Amino acid sequence: MVETAAAQSLLTPEQLARRERRKNLTVKEWNTDSKTKTRWLDHVKVYDSQGRCIEEIEYATYGQRSRVTSTYDDVTGKVVEEVEYNDRNKPMRIRKYEWNADGTKAKQYNYLPNGKLFSVKVFEYIFSDR
User: Fold this and answer.
1) Which of 108, 102, 103 is nearest to 81 (CA)?
2) Alpha-carbon distance 102 to 123, whole Å?
3) What pLDDT is recorded for position 75?
4) What Å distances lie between residue 58 and 45, 53, 67, 92, CA to CA?
5) Checking CA distances to 11, which of 2, 22, 29, 61 falls within 20 to 30 Å?
6) Where does residue 77 rank: exposed (0-12), middle (13-18), buried (19+ CB within 10 A)?
7) Domain spans, the chain
């Protein structure tokens, strides 16, 4: 997946710099019990060659608690789909996104693992003149 220059132009210089630092990065967070000094993996984030988070895994002392994978649009660079997995690594929920031209989220479609549409969330942005 190659993000276009047009999609990158929507990002601030700070966002581009942050992405540059995260290219092909894996971040692991560890917890340590203060009494027993037992250490366990708490959280993992995996970034692609463009610095976008493509996988996030949360762990408990017994193993994986949940996992989310993200797919991005090649043209806009925005997340178009997220798949949420349970502790047995089975899909539990699929979210698909639509975006407004200004880069704000327009709709979120929530699907069951069998592909059946469960719900739709519509985002409304209201600016006040205060």
Assistant:
1) 108
2) 13
3) 84
4) 9, 14, 6, 15
5) 29
6) buried
7) 5-122
Query: The tokens of 45 are what?
Result: 């984030």
Structure tokens at 25: 């990065």
Sheet containing strand 105-111, strands side by side: 26-32, 39-47, 53-60, 63-72, 79-85, 91-99, 105-111, 117-122
List pLDDT tens digits, range 13-68.
888 888 888 898 999 999 998 999 888 999 999 999 999 999 999 999 889 999 99
Q: For residue 120, what are the β-bridge partners?
A: 109
Q: b/e for 104-116, b at 16 or more Cβ within 10 A? A: eeeeeeebeeeee
pTM for the model stands at 0.80
State the fold for domain 5-122: Lipocalin (2.40.128)
